[in-house]
Specification:
Helix content is 80%, strand content 0%. By secondary structure, the protein is mainly alpha-helical. The radius of gyration is 21 Å and the shape is globular. The two termini are 40 Å apart.
Length: 403
C-alpha cells in the first residue's frame, strides 16, 4: 500500500479529490461509448436497434440495485475496497460488451456495468458530501461530462485508425481496472471520518415525505430531465447516420459536442451562479432546452441542427445539480435526504424508460419521431419546473434561491 501516514489531512483530501475527479471521468466514459457503438453492436448480434431501450433498462436495474445498498455494503467493507471492486466490475463488464456474441450475455454485461457504476456514483457522493466542499461536489459532475465527451472521441479516433468499436471498449475497460488498482493502493486514505455520522438529523419517513404533493412534481422533473439527456446522448448518432445521411465520423463528433457542451456549461454555470440566482439560471436553461430541441427537430440545415445539439447540452448543464441544490431551501432540511434520494432514483428510471419508449416508437413512425420526442420532453420539463417554482415560492417567500 502507498504510505500516506505523513501527509496532512488537507493534502490527503486534495489527493482524494483528484482521484474522485478521475473516477467521475470513468463513470462518464461508458455512457459516451454506447451511443456510438450501439449500431455496430446491433449489427453484430443481429438484434433491432430499438433494443437499446431494453439494454438501458438492465443497466439501470443494476445501477439501482447497488446504489440502494451501497451504504449497507460500506458497513461491511471499507470505501476504498468497495470502489476498487466496483471499478473491476465495470472494467470486466466493458470487456463483456466487446466479447459478447449473444444477446443474453450483453444483458448481463449491461446489468453488472450498471451495478459497478451505481456503487461508484453513490458511495463517492456520500463521501464527497461529508468531506468535500459544495463547490468541489459540483465540479465532480462536470468531470462526469468530460468522461461522456471523451467516450465518442475515443471511438471516433479508433475508427480513424482503422480499428473497430471493440478497441474503444477494451481501452476504457483497461482504464477502469487501472483505477481499481489505484483505489486499492490508496484504500487507507478513504478512512477519513464521515461528517454525516456526526450529524444528528431528524429522521423523516418516506411515507411522510411522499405525502407532500409537490415532492412528486420534483421527482417528475428528474425523471423527464435525465430521460431527455440520455435520449439525446444515445440516439443522436443513430438519427444522424440512419435518417440524415451524416458520415459516422462527423456524427461521432456531433455527439461529442453534446456531451462537451454539457460539461462546458457545468463549468461556466459554476461561476455564473455566483452572480445570478439559481431560479433565474434554471429559467434560462429551460428556455434554451426548448429552443435547442426545436432547432434539431426542424432540421433546416446541418448547421442549425448542430447548434441545436450544442444548445441542448449547454442548457441541460445546470439543471441536475441546481435542482438538487434547491431541495433543502424549498422543502426543508429534514426532508432533503429523502427527496434527493427519490429524485436520483427517478432520474435513473427516466434515463432507461424514455429512451426505450423513443426507440420503440421508431418502428411505426420512423427515426424522425425521436427528435419530436426530444421537443415534447423539453416542454414537459419546463412546464413541470415552472409550476413547481410558482407553487413553492408562495410557501418560501423568504428563501433566496441563489447560492
Amino acid at each position: 500500500m502507498l504510505n500516506f501516514h505523513s501527509m496532512t489531512t488537507s493534502l490527503k483530501l486534495r489527493f482524494l479529490i483528484l482521484i474522485s475527479f478521475i473516477a467521475f471521468v470513468s463513470l462518464g466514459l461508458p455512457d459516451g461509448l454506447l451511443g456510438i457503438a450501439w449500431p455496430f453492436i446491433s449489427d453484430k448480434l443481429d438484434i433491432p436497434l430499438e433494443n437499446l431501450g431494453v439494454l438501458l433498462m438492465f443497466f439501470v436495474a443494476g445501477y439501482l440495485s447497488s446504489s440502494m445498498t451501497s451504504s449497507k455494503i460500506m458497513s461491511w467493507i471499507s470505501l476504498g475496497w468497495l470502489l476498487a471492486f466496483s471499478c473491476f466490475l465495470t472494467g470486466v463488464s466493458l470487456f463483456g460488451f466487446a466479447l459478447s456474441n449473444q444477446w443474453i450475455f450483453l444483458i448481463f454485461s449491461a446489468y453488472f456495468l450498471g451495478s459497478g457504476g451505481g456503487a461508484i456514483d453513490t458511495s463517492l457522493n456520500i463521501f464527497a458530501s461529508a468531506n468535500f466542499s459544495p463547490s468541489v461536489v459540483n465540479w465532480l459532475h462536470a468531470f462526469y461530462g468530460i468522461g461522456a465527451t471523451s467516450g465518442p472521441l475515443i471511438l471516433t479516433w479508433f475508427f480513424t485508425m482503422g480499428q473497430t468499436w471493440k478497441s474503444g471498449y477494451y481501452f476504457v475497460g483497461s482504464i477502469q481496472i487501472s483505477l481499481g488498482i489505484l483505489f486499492i493502493l490508496s484504500s487507507k486514505m478513504w478512512l477519513v471520518k464521515e461528517k454525516t455520522k456526526e450529524i444528528n438529523q431528524e429522521k423523516i419517513s418516506y411515507r411522510l415525505t411522499l405525502q407532500k404533493p409537490l415532492v412528486w412534481l420534483s421527482i417528475l422533473i428528474f425523471f423527464v430531465y435525465t430521460g431527455l439527456e440520455v435520449c439525446v446522448g444515445q440516439w443522436t448518432f443513430t438519427i444522424l447516420t440512419k435518417s440524415r445521411s451524416i458520415a459516422e465520423e462527423s456524427a461521432g463528433l456531433w455527439v461529442s459536442t453534446f456531451w462537451g457542451s454539457l460539461t462546458l456549461g457545468r463549468i461556466l454555470f459554476g461561476f455564473i451562479l455566483k452572480k445570478i440566482s439559481t431560479v433565474q439560471v434554471l429559467h434560462l436553461a429551460m428556455f434554451g432546452i426548448i429552443i435547442g430541441s426545436g432547432a434539431f427537430l426542424v432540421d433546416v440545415s446541418n448547421t442549425m441542427s448542430f447548434l441545436g445539439i450544442f444548445l441542448i447540452g449547454f442548457s441541460c448543464a445546470p439543471v441536475f445539480p441546481s435542482m438538487i441544490a434547491l431541495v433543502p431551501g424549498l422543502f426543508g432540511e429534514k426532508f432533503a435526504a429523502n427527496i434527493i434520494g427519490f429524485q436520483i432514483s427517478a432520474a435513473m428510471i427516466g434515463g432507461a424508460i424514455l429512451p426505450a419508449v423513443s426507440g420503440f416508437l421508431t418502428d411505426p413512425f420512423g427515426w424522425e419521431v425521436i427528435p419530436i420526442s426530444f421537443f415534447f420532453q423539453a416542454i414537459l420539463l419546463a412546464l413541470s419546473y415552472y409550476f413547481l417554482i410558482k407553487k413553492l415560492k408562495i410557501k418560501h417567500r423568504n428563501y433566496s434561491p441563489g447560492f
